Structure formats: structure tokens, C-alpha cells
Amino acid sequence: MSLIHAQNLAKSYRVGDLEVPALKGIDFVIEPSSFVAFVGPSGSGKSTLLNLVGCLDHPTSGKLTVLDTDVAALNRSASAEFRGRHIGFIFQDFNLIPVLTAYENIEYPLVMVQNWPAAQRHDRVMSLLDAVGMADQAGKRPDQLSGGQKQRVAVARALVANSKLVLADEPTANLDHDTAYRIIELMRKMRDEFGTTFVFSTHDAKIMREAEVTFTLEDGRFITNPPSHHD
After folding, report:
1. Can you tell me the distance from the alpha carbon of 126 to that of 158, in angstroms, rounded to the nearest whole number?
2. How far, in Å, CA of 203 to CA of 40, rounded?
3. Average pLDDT rounded to a whole number, residues 22-28
């Protein structure tokens, strides 16, 4: 059973009187436990594609199924609930809440969306802090952490609600070379441990080399004929 399936997926934006196509009828399949990269130059459509898969935006036409759900048919509140329950996000600028500690940033999705009991939340957050090597930094706020540490917290936050799918938009863009590699290794380890699918939107050659499946976009279309699954 595929995790994500897109058929003739298209997205256009209105700019004044113009209809500007961002995606022009693409098809792809992503299997569970995959390490996948959408790559291409700025304006190629990769961030648009990530936003559609993440239910942050709706396609103009075509079909998009994520975790057996026709996400194109969801209204705004149903999209938000689906995201909260099933999808983790990692951003290039970390998007941590400045006034919360590392622990509280990771706990936040469980409080806001999942409504877990306190003891269960504590066990889950501590296990993720441990898994990303940040247990000794649990009480620090983002301004007390390095870029790599912030991204580790962001990885833990993306996984805390047992997300089967994590979408990472340029997750290594603000990291130095060595730190970026360590974060990629960490995400691969998380994939192996939890069976999570990671989908990246990236320019970064390091992620492209590490991805098991790469979809290359140019001008709203795939320019490579992507495999439908990995071995």
C-alpha cells in the first residue's frame, strides 16, 4: 500500500488576472518508510508540492491520496486535524517557539492537537529527546542552542506524535556542512527506527546523495522518470 499517490496533480495561482501554473499534471507514488527528495531550482514547484502533500494547500486539479485519505477533498479544519494527527514538519529556520524550552517545543503538538495525558506526554518527549541526543538540553530555550541542536529539537518535534510522514523543507539550509550531515544521518536513523517516511524539498547535494528516491522538478513537471518504489 503506497503512502502517497498523486495522479495528474496540478496547482495554479492567480496573480492579478493571470493564472500561473506551479505544477502541471504530475504523477508519483511514495512508499512507506522511504527517504525521498523533491529537487529542482527555485520556482520549479517543489515547495508547492510539499505544501500540497502536507495539506497546507489544495490542488487545483488531479487526485492526491496521503495515508489512504483523499486530502484534496478535505476542508480547512479537516486539513488542519489531518496534519496534526499524521504529518510532522521540519523547516529550514527551525520554527521553534522562542519562549518554550526544547522539552516544551517537542511536547507542544501533543498538547495542542493530540491531547495526550501528562505522564504519557512526558515519557514520549523524553524518549524523543534521548533519541536525538538532546536529553541533557531539555530545559534550554532555542536562543541557548546551536543551529544543529535546534534542528535536532525540530526533528524530535516532527516525530513526537508518531507521525508516519515527515516533510522537511530545506532542513539543512542554515547548517554548516558537518552539522548538516549529522542531521541527515539522524533523520535516516529515525526512519530506520520508527518506519517514518521523510520527504525533502531541497537544493542540497548532500540530501540528494542520501535520498533513496529523487524526483527532479523543472517548471512544474518531473524531468526524470521517477521510480514508483525503492528496493
Report:
1. 14
2. 7
3. 94
Give the span between the Cα atoms of 90 and 95, in whole angstroms.
8
DSSP-assigned letters across all residues of 10-61? EEEEEETTEEEEEEEEEEEEE-TT-EEEEE-STTSSHHHHHHHHTTSS--SE
Which candidate, 37, 39, 46, 31, places its Cα nearest to that of 1? 31
> For residue 43, what pLDDT band results from cuts at 50, 70 and 90?
confident
Sheet containing 69-70: give its strands across.
18-30, 4-15, 61-66, 69-70
| Predicted local distance difference test score (pLDDT) of residue 225 | 54
Pairing verdict, β 213-218 and 221-222: antiparallel
Q: Which domains, ranges and CATH numbers included, belong to the chain?
A: 31-60+75-222 (3.40.50.300)
> Could you tell me the three cell numbers for 58?
489544495
DSSP-based helix, strand, coil % in the chain, nearest 5: 40, 25, 35
Helix (H), strand (E) counts: the chain: 7, 10
Name the β-bridge partners of 91: 169
